[in-house]
């Protein structure tokens, strides 16, 4: 018989960790699995990238997040914070375990589940392959669970350009260590936060930076307020070469072909030499598990179907949490870590309600185990919740 865990959380990001801790306080057995390390999405940010949200908005599980200079947390500081929270609460996490299948457990021939499997609704197949076989879809082992929380985020793969040459080794969808670009000619494709921040940092790091964006100018919104003055100054001075109303049409090992021109202008083609190309044009969610479970909505984002009061999907025992609920978000993001802190408590409330006996349901309420006064961190600070609603920072 397969190993059984009452609840499984898929995704060891901030909300996945916060969900597991909420379950622990409610006495709900849980384990967390992730295809990568703890905080996998954050781990691929460029070194020393800072959060847009302030520290109190990205803190989890009631544990304060402090930085040495009171500035917004960097990638390194936040990953260190997540490890500390995991250790403090002894969250059971299995990293580099990719869930490749989630299937309902079939009942026996009489239409009833076997007694030993009476609480088992879902069978999860895991792949522990690394390196070149990381995307292997054949399970190495299986685990059964009564409930599954999909806290898988929404930025798994870089968006593609759809042009010849984008698979060449010097074309990347992520900004790497700035040091590696020193003295090199770098074309950055995009015009929002990722692209603008990369342009500024690479210029400071000694790269020869050009910026390609398909609109007439950088967008009025969606750029961090401390980045806009600097990037505009660098463009005005010519320190960063800009190609507005331009699109990449082809990439070779030595050159990039740009097509430039507005709607009333005849397009002009330029073939320019570049050593590196960074296509920082957004990211897509890996919705393969949502598709397996047939819970994908008809929205362009491919967001999952779920009840916002309980976070449960149309499949009983399958929940979604965190930015995963937004699917693949466009450049105007609406779902962030800072407005997902109530998801863990909603799921825990629903699970505890399912587990309560008829006698319990008449008058008893389920309190957090260990510290009954703790409650859920998102509920405990009403002032923070109000600030997030009135002034979202992300």
From TrEMBL:
Regions of compositional bias (Basic and acidic residues) in chain numbering: 382-394
Top-level taxon of origin: Bacteria
UniProt keyword list: Oxidoreductase
Keyword Oxidoreductase: yes
Keyword Mitochondrion listed: no
Disordered: annotated segments: 352-394
Protein name stated in the entry: NAD(P)-binding domain-containing protein
């Amino acid at each position: 018989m397969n190993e059984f865990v009452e609840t499984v959380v898929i995704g060891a990001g901030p909300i996945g960790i916060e969900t597991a801790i909420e379950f622990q306080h409610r006495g709900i057995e849980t384990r967390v699995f992730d295809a990568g390390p703890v905080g996998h999405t954050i781990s691929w940010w460029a070194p020393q990238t800072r959060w847009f949200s302030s520290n109190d908005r990205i803190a989890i599980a009631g544990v304060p997040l402090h930085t040495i200079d009171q500035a917004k947390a960097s990638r390194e500081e936040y990953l260190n914070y997540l490890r500390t929270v995991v250790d403090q609460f002894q969250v059971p996490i299995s990293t580099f375990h990719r869930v490749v299948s989630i299937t309902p457990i079939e009942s026996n021939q009489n239409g009833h589940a076997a007694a030993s499997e009476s609480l088992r609704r879902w069978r999860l197949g895991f792949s522990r392959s690394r390196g070149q076989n990381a995307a292997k879809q054949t399970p190495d082992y299986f685990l059964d669970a009564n409930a599954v929380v999909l806290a898988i985020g929404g930025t798994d793969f870089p968006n593609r350009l759809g042009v010849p040459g984008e698979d060449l080794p010097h074309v990347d969808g992520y900004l790497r260590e700035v040091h590696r670009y020193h003295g090199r000619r770098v074309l950055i494709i995009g015009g929002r936060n990722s692209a603008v921040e990369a342009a500024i940092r690479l210029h400071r790091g000694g790269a020869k930076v050009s910026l390609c964006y398909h609109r007439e100018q950088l967008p009025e919104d969606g750029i961090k307020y401390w980045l806009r003055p600097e990037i505009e100054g660098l463009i005005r001075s010519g320190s960063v070469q800009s190609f507005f109303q331009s699109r990449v049409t082809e990439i070779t090992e030595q050159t990039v072909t740009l097509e430039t021109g507005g709607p009333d202008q005849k397009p002009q083609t330029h073939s320019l030499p570049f050593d590196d190309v960074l296509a920082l044009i957004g990211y897509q969610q890996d919705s393969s598990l949502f598709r397996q479970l047939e819970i994908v909505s008809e929205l362009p984002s491919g967001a999952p179907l779920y009840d916002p009061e309980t976070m449960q999907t149309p499949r009983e025992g399958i929940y979604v949490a965190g930015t995963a609920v937004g699917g693949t978000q466009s450049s105007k993001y609406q779902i962030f870590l800072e407005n997902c802190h109530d998801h863990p408590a909603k799921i825990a409330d629903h699970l505890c309600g399912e587990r309560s006996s008829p006698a319990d349901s008449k008058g008893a309420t389920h309190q957090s185990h260990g510290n009954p006064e703790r409650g859920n961190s998102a509920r405990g600070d009403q002032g923070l919740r109000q600030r997030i609603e009135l002034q979202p920072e992300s």
